[in-house]
Amino acid sequence: MRFLKNSFIALAGVAACFISGSAQAARSSVGIMTPRNIVKIDKDYTYGYTYLPGDALDVYETPNRKIGWTVNYDFLDKNLLRPVSVAYVDYVPEVVRVCLSNAYQNLREVNNTVNNLLVARPLDSGTSAVRFGINSTIGLFGCIDVAKYMGLERKRMTMDTVLGKWGVDSGAYVVIPGLGIGTYRSYVGSAIDTLYFPFTYFPWWVDGVLWGFNAVDERATTLNQDEVLRNSLDPYSQARDFYLMYHEGLVSGTDSTSTIEENDDQLEQYMDEIDE
């Protein structure tokens, strides 16, 4: 299972490089010196697609809508993920849910430690390392976020954001059945993040359990935001644009969603929560 997942992500990475290269070509020009003049070539390689935040391109919009979005949003979420998440909230005590969520996020502190170093944030990296040490011991394997009560807030940094800060464009926007929404860059970044300790030492079935729990936990935190997409004229486009704007904001370090209309503020929170 891990092999198949990483193989798929590797292929996505190659495609991401291709899209990123094409996007760069679309913004560049080639000067060819001749004996009499300089000829400027500026060829568009986007084939009519509009650049979205992060220089993403929705080149697969038709299959994204008809296959990915239909399977994920209209079928899997409606008939499986949402009902399970509702039951999780209704029947599992909040203290247990908070404990499990904290423990999972504590595992991600290793990612935060390394990734913050990669973007030259040594203080945030040190904070993440200290949080991992404190919460893994005093906090009972991360069940209790003791570090937060000591003034050490989580300094989240994913490889997707790292790649963006290094100048890698988002690439194509993709909606994959069973996985959700993302871009070439985000899927490559997620694959790299799973290679960090301790995830790389887990057997495939533990990875599967963690993946399933994270999906349910994330969905449970956004149940009260369902009406935002449900009342949208085009849920696909709205989720896509907010997702890309949110991640571009993480890369640029600014609130890229500040221009959104006030009545859509809930969707910004929605994207923030599902990205944890």
What labels would you give this structure?
276 residues, 61% helix, 12 helices, single chain, disordered N terminus, mainly alpha, two-stranded antiparallel sheet, globular, 4 strands
| Main β sheet profile | 2 strands, antiparallel
**What's the total helix number?**
12
Order of helices and strands: HEEHHHHHHEEHHHHH
What is the terminal separation in angstroms? Answer: 23 Å
| Helix proportion | 55-70%
User: What general outline do the C-alpha atoms trace?
Assistant: globular
| Low-pLDDT ranges | 1-12, 14-45, 255-268
The share of residues in extended strands comes to 5-15%
Whole-number average pLDDT?
79
Rg, rounded, reads 21 Å
Strand order of the largest sheet: 1-2
List the helices and strands and how they pair.
Blueprint: H1 2-26, E1 30-33, E2 38-41, H2 61-91, H3 94-107, H4 109-118, H5 122-137, H6 146-149, H7 159-165, E3 173-176, E4 180-183, H8 184-193, H9 204-221, H10 226-230, H11 235-252, H12 265-274
Antiparallel strand pairs: 1-2, 3-4
